[in-house]
Amino acid sequence: KLLLMLNQKFSQTKKTMLKIFLQMLQINHRLYHTTYKRNNLFKNDKIIDYISGPMGAKFQENLKQQWINFCMSNQDYGFFTLVNNNLGYLSKDLSQNLNEIKHLCNSQVPFGINFINRQDFKEKDSAEGLILQSLIFISPIDSQHMYFQWLRQRKIWWSKFSVSPGHILIKDLDGNEGDQYSNNCYLHHMNELVGATVHNANIIVKIDKQDLPIETVGLYEQNTKTGMYMESNIGRILPHVIISSVCLKYACTGILAECLDENENLIMHHNLAPFQYRIICDYSDVEDINELKDLGQYICCLLRKSLIPTLYINNNLSFSDIIKQSDKMGIPYCLILRANSLKTGFMHLRNRDTTLEEQIHISDIPKYLEKLCKK
After folding, report:
1. What is the DSSP string of 48-72?
2. What is the pLDDT of residues 165-209, one digit of tens each?
3. What is the pLDDT of residues 136-155, one digit of tens each?
4. Ranges for the Anticodon-binding domain (predicted)?
């Protein structure tokens, strides 16, 4: 099916090269998927409900954007981004895009490609969602060094979103007898790569003695007869390929599980939070409730105009219950309007992590809050 979708003008060598290229994407993702299944998905109703709801959708979108930002701002590699609807199936333009990227890079390594695909494996209990993959083509001389460097960079990147960075670990999958199911899967798909050599490791989050994989990173050595040749400072070479795979839904489940405290509050990073701020009106001792509501609406519009994700809803919950609800939703900061806010223009900014409040003036919004988000 893959070959039928190729342009008939392509030579047999190019067809074989593209077939192996797609197989490398599939093996890396399947290894990631089966390892996650074997370790049992984190079975917490709050996490599952959160992921499946509107807040979870925004959380996943934020994580995807952070992943794109990391790749595109990388100083070691120039990345190109391709979007496909189905993982592992060749789109009409994929081969053309690969040739164009090769031309733009003047056939020089290193360079990277980002793939954003939708999972299409029909396995039982398979999670739906996007697969984020990074491919880095590098010189064989530098491949081992760059592979471990990339692995460390990815671990550090995940650690910054963790409540306890020590829970983010690297687990080597090569010859790991304790992970026999994944190892068998790995060896089975190795045969499809026609002699290519693969090194694989999982980046995991460790929770309650469970290892939940959030990313798989593999190093691939292409076959000399069917690989894609490039140029380097030492001449024509067959580059090695580093492939990172992230199932967005699995990764979000692992990170959220790690962020959930004993009170079921989500202590998530502010860059991943669906809303960075929530405006709360404390109506105790307020003579004109509507004026306070209007002030809250004005501040909300001001923040949204500055592209700061802000939540402002009026409900019948008490002030303390709204604070608890915000903590469970993972909102890092609450802007609290009280009776004297109408007279003085001052409001209180509550930090979720410290529960402390600081007083700020409305005229300092949104510049102060923008700086706070960037810290």
Report:
1. HHHHHSHHHHHHHHHHHHHHHHHHH
2. 889 999 988 654 434 333 333 333 333 333 455 678 999 998 877
3. 888 888 888 999 999 999 99
4. 291-371
Amino acid identity for residue 226 in this structure? T
- Residue 91 pLDDT > 50, yes or no? no
Q: Which CATH superfamily is domain 275-374 in?
A: Anticodon-binding domain (3.40.50.800)
- Give the integer Cα–Cα distance in Å for 24 and 30: 10
- Which residue has 């954007």 as its token pair? 65
**Per-residue model confidence as pLDDT tens digits over 20-64:** 445 544 545 554 444 444 344 444 667 777 787 888 889 999 999
% residues pLDDT > 90 (the chain):
24
The Cα–Cα gap between 280 and 293 comes to 9
Unique residue bearing structure tokens 């003036």: 361
Cβ neighbors of 225 (< 8 A, separation 6 or more) are 194
Amino acid 225 reads: K
Distance CA 231, CA 111 (A): 12
pLDDT (0 to 100) of residue 26: 52
pTM of the model: 0.78
Average pLDDT, the chain: 76
Q: Hey, is 331 helix, strand or coil?
A: coil
**Stretch (H or E) spanning 236:** strand 235-237
Cβ atoms within 10 Å of 318's Cβ, excluding its own: 12
d(CA 298, CA 294): 6
Contact 242, 219 (CB under 8 A): yes
Which sequence spans correspond to the domains of the chain? 45-259, 275-374
Was domain 45-259 assigned CATH 3.30.360.10?
A: no
Paired strand residues for 327: none
Question: Residue 250 above 90 pLDDT?
Answer: no
Length of the chain: 375
- Work out whether strand 310-311 and strand 277-281 pair parallel, antiparallel, or are unpaired: parallel
DSSP string covering 150-161: HHHHHHHHHHTT
Q: How far apart are CA 91 and CA 97, in angstroms?
A: 10
